[in-house]
Design goal:
Blueprint lengths: L3 H4 L9 H24 L4 H27 L7 H12 L6 H13 L14 H5 L13 H8 L2 H8 L1 H49 L19 H6 L6 H6 L15 H11 L19
C-alpha cells in the first residue's frame, strides 16, 4: 500500500457549491427537522413503515444494482430487474449509475492514489463525505465510463436521473398525505425521504472511510481496504471490503455462509427464480489470503 507521504498531494480542486448546499439541507432536515416535527406532531406507523421499506429498497438498489451489477458485473439479469435496481438506486441520492459506477471502477483501479475519488489517505472526513464537496477532474475519464455508456438502461437512468430522484422523494409524501393529510405527508417526507436519504448516504460513506481505515486485512494488503462486519450490518453486507478488493467480481462480499450479506442473499434468491444468472463466485481453493 502506498504511504501517505507518497500518495497525497495538496487538494486544489474547486468546491461544488450545489452539492454543499444540498447535503447541508439534508443534514439540517435530519438533525433538526426530524426532532422538531416529532415534538410538535410525532410520526405515524405509516411513516416508520415507509422509512424501513425505502431504506431497504434504496440501500439494495446501491449495493446490488449500482455496485455488484453495474460496476462489477458480478451477475446478469433480465432488463426488468436491472431497471428496477437502477430506479431504486436512483432514489438513494447517490448520483446516476453512470457517475457512481465509473467513480467506483476508478476507485479500484487507482485505490489510495490521487485519482481515487474517495482517497482514504486524505483522512476520515475526506473519504467519508468531504470528497463530494469538490469537483472531480477525473469524473468523465473514458477509461472508466466507456463500457457503461454502451448500456442503454444505464444511459436511460442517467438521462432521467433527476425525475427519478424526485419521484423517490415524492412517494413518501404522497403515501403520508393519503394516510393523514398534509401533516402526514410532511412527516412521511421527513422520515422516509430526508432522514432515510441521510442515513443511506452515510452508510455508503462508511465503506469509503471506515472500511479503508480500520479493520482486518485477511485477503490483501496491497491497498487500504479493510473488513468490518459492523459496517455490513447497515450496508447490506458491503463491510467485507478487503475480500471485495481481493475478488472484485464475486457476487458475495461476505464469502462465508455466516457473513451478514443480504445483498448476496438477494442475488442468490433471484437466481433461484430465473431472475439472475452467471453469478461470479470465487471457489474456496482460489480465495486469496494476505501473506
Amino acid at each position: 500500500m502506498p504511504s501517505t507521504a507518497d500518495s497525497v498531494k495538496p487538494l486544489t480542486r474547486q468546491c461544488s457549491y450545489g452539492t454543499i448546499i444540498l447535503f447541508s439541507l439534508i443534514t439540517l432536515g435530519a438533525l433538526v427537522g426530524l426532532p422538531v416535527f416529532a415534538y410538535f406532531h410525532d410520526y405515524s406507523w405509516v411513516d416508520w413503515a415507509m422509512f424501513g421499506l425505502l431504506y431497504v429498497v434504496t440501500g439494495l438498489g446501491i449495493t446490488v444494482g449500482y455496485h455488484r451489477l453495474i460496476a462489477h458485473r458480478s451477475f446478469d439479469c433480465p432488463r426488468w430487474v436491472k431497471a428496477a435496481l437502477l430506479i431504486a438506486g436512483g432514489w438513494a441520492l447517490e448520483n446516476s449509475a453512470l457517475k457512481w459506477a465509473s467513480a467506483h471502477i476508478r476507485h479500484h483501479a487507482r485505490c489510495d492514489e490521487e485519482e481515487d475519488p474517495y482517497n482514504a489517505q486524505r483522512g476520515f472526513w475526506y473519504s467519508h463525505v468531504g470528497w463530494i464537496f469538490f469537483t472531480d477532474p477525473y469524473a468523465y475519464d473514458e477509461r472508466y465510463t466507456s463500457r457503461l455508456r454502451q448500456d442503454p438502461l444505464v444511459m436511460w437512468q442517467h438521462r432521467y436521473y433527476v425525475p427519478l430522484l424526485l419521484l423517490g422523494l415524492a412517494l413518501p409524501f404522497v403515501v403520508g398525505f393519503l394516510y393523514d393529510g398534509w401533516m402526514g405527508g410532511l412527516g412521511c417526507f421527513l422520515l422516509a425521504g430526508v432522514v432515510r436519504n441521510f442515513l443511506v448516504l452515510n452508510s455508503t460513506f462508511c465503506i469509503n472511510s471506515i472500511c479503508h481505515l480500520w479493520g482486518a486485512q485477511p485477503h490483501t494488503a496491497t491497498d487500504s481496504s479493510r473488513d468490518s462486519w459492523v459496517v455490513s450490518l447497515v450496508t447490506f453486507g458491503e463491510g467485507y471490503h478487503n475480500y471485495h478488493h481481493a475478488h472484485q467480481r464475486d457476487y458475495r462480499n461476505g464469502p462465508r455462509w455466516y457473513n451478514f450479506d443480504p445483498s448476496k442473499w438477494l442475488i442468490f434468491g433471484l437466481s433461484k427464480i430465473g431472475a439472475a444468472w452467471d453469478l461470479c463466485r470465487v471457489q474456496p481453493g482460489r480465495t486469496r489470503f494476505a501473506s
